[in-house]
Amino acid sequence: GDVIHRMLTATQYIAPLMANFNPSYSRNSTVQYLDNGTVFVVQWDKVYLQGKEDLGSFTFQAALHSTGRIVFGYKEIPVPVLQISATQHPVKAGLSDAFMVLNPSPDVPESRRRTIYEYHRVELDTSRITSLSAVEFTPLPTCLQHQSCEMCVTSELTFNCSWCHVLQRYL
Description:
By secondary structure, the chain is mostly beta strands. It has helices at residues 3-11, 149-153, and strands at residues 13-18, 21-22, 30-35, 39-49, 58-65, 70-76, 92-104, 112-123, 133-137, 163-164, 169-170. Strand 5 (58-65) and strand 6 (70-76) form a beta hairpin.
């Protein structure tokens, strides 16, 4: 895609395995999804690496639960992930989030400069991604789960949050 798309996909992703896959290589290759209201699952089934189809097919999935839990499941990983070339496409696994800010450009008054700020990333050790393995991400509690000042004060959360009476929320 365009520059913005490439910049955002480099910094905003939920990726069980990001690599230069070619789903159109085989009729048996599919990327499917399922949403039953409590879990959203995307499965890459029998997909091949572009130009390295002789290595075999990969089958893996990502399951995003409504509770915030994320599970990556790896059924078929025919080669060690560390051996996948990142020349044509980045190779990574994990989670990352970012946001984009549009600032006026000092040079051209009608245009805006786009700046992407990555604020959190969790990278998996790709040497541990093997066939028949899984990774589970469990969300940590946050102050946003509280609905009142009393709940915040009696909470045993290990970070410093405070209740704002004006906004009726935690800061």
